[in-house]
Write a structure and sequence with these properties.
The complex is a heterodimer of chains A (338) and B (387). Chain A has eleven helices and no strands. Chain A is an all-alpha fold and 338 residues long. Chain A starts with 6 loop residues before the first helix and ends in a 7-residue tail after the last helix. With 387 residues, chain B is an alpha+beta fold. In chain B, the strands form three sheets. A three-stranded antiparallel β-sheet of chain B has the order 1-2-3. Chain B has a three-stranded antiparallel β-sheet with strand order 6-7-8. Chain B has a two-stranded antiparallel sheet with strand order 4-5. The longest helix of chain B is centred in the N-terminal third of the chain and has 29 residues. The chains are: A mainly alpha (338), B alpha+beta (387).
Chain lengths: 338, 387
């Protein structure tokens, strides 16, 4: 018996899969964060929940948060306060719609995939601003404004470094971009791809508000920034869940744009035996590990130093990269083009 | 700030016009840092007036942990007081006990046998290392580096384990007595202590490069929170913070007590008085403490650990002021005895109290992020401020 699905049914199935996969991914990445950090700090990390090396720690954590009281401050703007975690959570999931796990393993291969990714991933900052403003808490307000300023500063290098890739690939479709990299962009064209990758990952860390760019949630300065007044489920969906989901998404985007996504890392025919899905997971996990590695390694920058770093270093560098990529596309001999 | 003030918001176009004219009126905000705040490690409160991210004014409010020790000691005999004062600065416990007994010994004219003196030096310096490692951990954490905490606690563990074998305590040791120590150390203690200290020094080099060599760390601390020497003098700042400001004052050198004059050690000095220098001095004091411990253990005399002490500790009428170099600065006890088993009055001069009084001066005009770095670099213990 053959099952035929209409486009709409297929789309619904894919959406259901995404809704199941994203939380699972988040749990895995969150567990990885616990363990990687622990081992970098001479600790074991969680060992008991679930029996084997504490694999169920985040399930236990989640249950704990469900049981916690949902506190809304009396002075809060209640509707906005309740809406903010949702406004942060939904974009974090929607990013996954266009990420190609394999040539056909994708919900929707949009023609403007890169544009969609960058647009959606910055929407959640509106949620952070909502949370900060509605909490009626000064720390929350400072945190939200820091997050807003940080987004403006670091969105530019991200967009510009992604533009470099779009120029090199000649398309905005993510599948198209992957297919344009028999050699991943990080290796070829020499230099341009690597620097664009570094700019993208650095700005990505800032966009995710992870250390060393975590001023919007800096615990020792402004408690948890915009989420100071949140508790229970709202806290984990708005804060923890969205952060980890966004981090995984950034690792996946980085793997797609710079490491050749589901293609083998170098065009060597024996490597084709490994399915594209596995390549993608390997590359994304590597980038995820980089994110996790940075966190216990560096102290935090100051707010003005962060802004200077964006406007005086990253943005000029990425503007120059755009020029270089344009020159490469126009003038490099045909044989060198991917 | 309430959200109800929405009605008073200006028309966005007006704000843009005002910005263009450079005449936009902004308001200062009173930010209440603490008493419950992750960076104050304790119930320390700071009333900060901020203009955006800049601190216009800062006023420390202390007293949330006041336990009335100076009054409590008047109703207790000296054996009880030793455990009470140990809880003032909970990171320098055994160092708090020492000057109190030194004051009693001075009034009663008791002889302390040389072995006890040397052992006191070992204990006090080990405690200093414990304290400094703790601040190494917390200063990193305040700057967003979470890893030093775990390294520091691993090192503390070995020293604490050694001290536990001798004193039975890991935090509040209660080891000092009038005329000496409670009892002699167990066999193997000196070797264990020496091994632990040497390991700390070995690893300190790594930590030093990891944290102090980090570019972000330097950017956050160099030139931040400068405390000029004159200001430090006027506020009575002492300890690593004063030495960070290039004030050469260390009670161990200037008025040697115990047997400090027999040891060869340096007093690390900063030059500019910024956060970096204060932290630098703190870290280098660990090396110096380790040197003192090594020399004390090498030259450890044998003999009794407790001198000839009357059955009842009852200092004669009189008064005395004894000061020692605590981990965080000068700790002084002004003891007045009326010949009773209990002190008539015991005024305690704690280092953190005086050090923190210089905070408003340093904090003015800094950023909110710097405020945390400065608070961290002032190395205060709340129990030591409030007693």
């Amino acid at each position: 018996m053959e099952i035929t699905l209409t486009d709409w049914q297929l789309l619904l199935v894919k959406l259901a899969v995404i809704l199941a996969v994203v939380p699972a991914l988040t749990l895995v990445a969150g567990y990885a964060e616990h363990k990687v950090m622990a081992h970098l700090q001479h600790r074991l990390g969680p060992m008991y929940p679930g029996g084997f090396h504490g694999w169920a720690i985040l399930l236990a954590d989640g249950l704990k948060f469900i049981y916690k009281e949902d506190i809304i401050p009396a002075a809060a703007d209640k509707r906005v306060f309740k809406l903010a975690p949702i406004a942060i959570f939904i974009p974090a999931v929607m990013v996954y719609l266009v990420i190609p796990l394999d040539r056909t393993l994708i919900v929707e291969d949009l023609d403007v995939g890169v544009f969609y990714l960058l647009a959606i991933s910055s929407v959640s900052t509106i949620g952070v601003l909502m949370a900060g403003w509605s909490s009626a808490n000064k720390y929350a307000l400072i945190g939200a404004l820091r997050a807003g300023a940080q987004l403006i500063a670091y969105e530019l290098p991200i967009v510009l470094s992604a533009a470099v890739i779009v120029m090199l690939a000649g398309t905005m479709s993510l599948v198209g971009i992957v297919e344009a990299q028999p050699w991943p962009f990080i290796l070829w064209p020499p230099g341009i791809g690597l620097v664009a990758f570094l700019v993208f990952m650095g700005s990505g860390i800032a966009e995710l508000t992870r250390p060393p760019f975590d001023m919007p949630v800096a615990e020792s300065e402004i408690i948890t920034g915009a989420f100071t007044e949140y508790s229970g489920m709202r806290f984990i969906f708005g804060f923890f869940f969205a952060e980890v989901a966004n981090m995984v998404a950034f690792a996946a985007i980085g793997a797609t744009l710079f490491l050749g996504g589901f293609n083998p890392i170098v065009p060597w025919s024996p490597l084709d035996a490994i399915p594209g899905f596995v390549w993608f997971v390997l590359k994304a996990s590597f980038l995820l590990f980089l994110f996790l590695w940075v966190r216990p390694t560096f102290p935090r920058l100051r707010e003005d130093q962060l802004q200077k770093f964006a406007w005086k270093v990253l943005i000029p560098v990425s503007l120059f990269l755009v020029l270089a990529a344009g020159a490469w596309v126009l003038y490099a001999p045909e044989a060198l083009q991917p | 700030m309430t959200v109800d003030s929405r009605d008073e918001l200006k028309n966005p176009q007006e704000v843009i016009d005002e910005l263009a004219r450079g005449s936009l009126q902004t308001e200062q905000m009173l930010l209440n840092v603490g008493p419950q705040h992750p960076a104050t490690h304790g119930v320390f409160r700071l009333l900060a007036t901020i203009d955006g991210e800049v601190l216009v004014d800062a006023e420390p409010v202390i007293g949330y942990m006041h336990r009335g020790y100076e009054k409590l000691v008047e109703a207790r005999d000296y054996r009880q007081i030793t455990n009470l004062v140990s809880r003032m600065d909970w990171l320098s416990n055994i160092q708090n006990e020492l000057p109190m007994w030194m004051a009693v010994e001075a009034l009663m004219e008791l002889e302390v046998p040389p072995r006890a003196q040397y052992m006191r030096v070992v204990m006090v310096e080990a405690n200093r290392i414990l304290n400094h490692l703790m601040f190494f951990a917390s200063f990193g954490a305040e700057l967003g580096a979470i890893t030093p905490t775990f390294y520091a606690f691993r090192e503390r563990e070995d020293i604490q384990a050694a001290m536990e074998t001798a004193t039975g305590g890991r935090m509040h040791f209660g080891y000092m007595r009038a005329g000496g120590l409670k009892e002699d150390v167990p066999r193997g203690f000196l070797q264990a202590m020496l091994a632990a200290v040497r390991q700390v020094i070995d690893r300190m080099d790594q930590y030093y490069n990891l944290l102090v060599g980090n570019e972000i760390f330097k950017a956050r601390t160099i030139g931040v929170g400068v405390l000029e020497p004159e200001v430090a003098y006027n506020y009575g700042v002492s300890g690593p913070i004063a030495r960070g400001s290039n004030i050469n004052f260390d009670v161990r050198k200037d008025e040697p007590y115990l047997v400090y004059d027999q040891f060869d050690f340096d007093v690390p000095m900063g030059t500019s008085g910024d956060c970096f220098d204060r932290f630098w001095v703190l870290l280098h004091e660990v090396y110096e403490s380790a040197r003192i411990i090594e020399q004390a253990i090498e030259g450890m005399p044998s003999g009794p650990i407790l001198g000839k002490v009357p059955r009842v500790i009852q200092p004669p009428e009189g008064e005395v002021y004894i000061r020692t170099e605590n981990s965080l600065g000068e700790l002084g006890y002004y003891l007045i005895s009326d010949g009773d088993k209990r002190p008539y009055r015991m005024k305690i001069r704690t280092p953190s109290y005086s050090n923190v009084s210089a905070l408003p001066y340093v904090l003015k005009g800094t950023f909110v992020s710097d405020m945390i770095a400065i608070l961290g670099s002032f190395f205060f213990v709340l129990g030591d401020i409030d007693r």
